[in-house]
Amino acid sequence: MRGKLAVYFTFPYPDSKVIGSFLDSLGSEFVDYVELGIPVMHPYYDGPKIRMTHESARKLFNPDELRTAVKNINDRGMETYALTYMNSFENNVEEGINKIKEYGFKGVILPDLLIDYFDESNSTVDAVKRGGLHLIPFFTSSTPDSVVGEILKKTDSWIYHGIQPSTGITVPVDISRTGARIREFSGRSEVIFGFGISNPGDIRKVMESGADGVAIGSMFIDYLKKGDLEGFKNMVSEIRGVLDEY
What residues have CB less than 8 Å from 137, skipping those under 6 apart? Predict the structure, then answer.
């Protein structure tokens, strides 16, 4: 099985035209999963670079454009996942999940669920299932073993494991130990590592730890800001080349 590549974009940063051209350039020969961030006011587990994209994207967000983008990606053989925050649901999780379903996503990633809303995790998992979506569990090295084990009993999707506490932030982490720990719980589930991968060397370390793939987001922001589509395509190709070594 080839190493999986998940790419992340806050939609529609920096604007509809640029993000549209970047998304149109993606193909299933390179990319497996596309995570689209629904812009929120307080993306507090994202690092400075990603937080900046939320500020801009919120002003430009158009639900119809997102729905079209998701359909186009799905039609080209890639899977799309929404990345958003429980704090954006305004105490109505069911309604928030239904909106994500209406956009056409296959599943949802909620970085704050197991940290700030753990008491609501069971009801949220149930709401996601009722909506016909997959909940992608998001863990970090600080997520208690008991929580990891409990959540994995209730989901059947791939796992998103954050190396760092947020994107664009670097603290000392033993990637090999982190990979071995999550493997104790994951069974046959794919484990995709993100939140802290900034170069091909990081990708190699993660894959050597036993990961099934990587999620990349912050690495692409400078290309988006400049509208450098060719540079972005070359970077995606380079990442795929590194993943194909494993």
Answer: 114, 148, 151, 152, 155, 157, 159, 160
- The tokens for 28 are 């299933």
Closest CA to 196 of 227, 170, 234: 170
Per the structure, the count of domains in the chain is 1
Contact 88, 116 (CB under 8 A): no
CATH number at residue 123: 3.20.20.70
Q: In this predicted structure, what is the pLDDT of residue 198?
A: 83
CA geometry: angle at 139 spanning 2 and 98, to 5°?
90
- The pTM of the full predicted model, rounded to 2 decimals, is 0.92
- Tens digit of each residue's pLDDT (9 = 90 or more) over 46-77: 888 899 999 999 999 999 999 999 999 999 99
Task: Kindly state the tokens that stand for 78.
Answer: 């890639």
**What b-and-e string marks burial along 181-214, b requiring 16 or more CB atoms within 10 Å of the CB?**
bbeebbeebbbbbbbbbeebebbebbbebbbbbb
Beta bridge partners of 187: none
Determine if the peptide bond prior to 172 is cis (ω within 30°).
no
- Gap between the Cα atoms of 240 and 120, Å rounded: 37
- The candidate with the shortest Cα–Cα distance to 218, out of 35, 20, 21, 50, is 50
Cα distance between residue 207 and residue 209, in whole Å = 5
Token couple for 129: 């299932």
Sheet with 134-136, strands from edge to edge, namely 134-136, 107-109, 79-83, 33-37, 4-10, 213-216, 191-194, 159-162, 138-140
Domain, as residue range, for 20: 4-243
